[in-house]
Amino acid sequence: MNPHKLIIHLCLCVIVVFVSTKISFPKQPVGGRLAIVVDERLSVLRAEPQLTGRIVKRLSRGRLVAIRGSRTASDGVIFYLVNVTNRTHGWIQREAVVSAKHRGDDRRLVELINLSHGFDRIIRARLFLDHFPRSPLRPQVLLLLGSTAEEQAAKLSRDAAKRLNGTRGDAPEFTFFLNYSGLDRYNRQRVGFIFNQSTKRFHYDGAAWRELARRHPNSPDAVEARKRLAQLTELK
Predict the structure, then answer these.
(1) From residue 108, how far is each of 39, 88, 96, 128 by CA, in Å?
(2) What is the fold of 33-98?
(3) Nearest-10 crossing angle of helices 118-131, 105-115
């Protein structure tokens, strides 16, 4: 077969397979101001705007909703009326969500990040960075993300050493560490680690610090970021 015809034939096959395969992508809710769930402790979707209202479902952290309106309950708690899907809507406590279009919500999320610890802090920092691209608080959050990841690296080092103690195989020892399952959830948050073979310790790869130094070079947080990057270079 002519090479050009072969390429066209392959492309057509790919298109047919793609079109014929039913793939369901999560749809962004419509009908109001876009917001995201950041505090799963409060993210109960209710049929009525009150804490005793019937529970429709509990929304997971990171879930997008569309805010249609608000109402204050008799006890002073504010609820948002939100669309979750075209068929699912209800009332959710205001503190459970933030919106990039609502003034002050970036600061409110930063306060929640500061109150969080470990992996929870990393998840919420990532939500901030993904949904508040223009916030002046981004340098602070980038530094927090990097510092928390380095703190978690120490715990990951201890856990991996215990789990992999006595591991034998044809592959080099360091590859077992870098394939350690405990790294998976961090990878899903786009947080990476390097491994020092001599000390058998993980260290944060510094991506947030590099972004901070590159995009916000004159911020006070960039000074600390450059210091952390210099220490990382010495480790390498």
Answers:
(1) 11, 27, 11, 10
(2) SH3 type barrels. (2.30.30)
(3) 160
Give the pLDDT confidence score for residue 170 in this predicted structure.
86
User: Where along the chain do the CATH 2.30.30.40 domains lie?
Assistant: 33-98
Successive 10-residue mean pLDDT values, the chain, 236 residues = 50 41 61 97 98 97 97 97 96 98 97 98 98 98 98 97 83 94 98 96 98 97 97 87
Contacts 24+ apart (CB under 8 A), 9-15: none
Instruction: Judge contact between 81 and 65, C-beta under 8 A.
Output: no
Beta-carbon contacts of residue 52 (< 8 Å; ≥ 6 apart): none
The pTM is what? 0.84
Distance separating alpha carbons of residues 98 and 39, to the nearest angstrom: 9
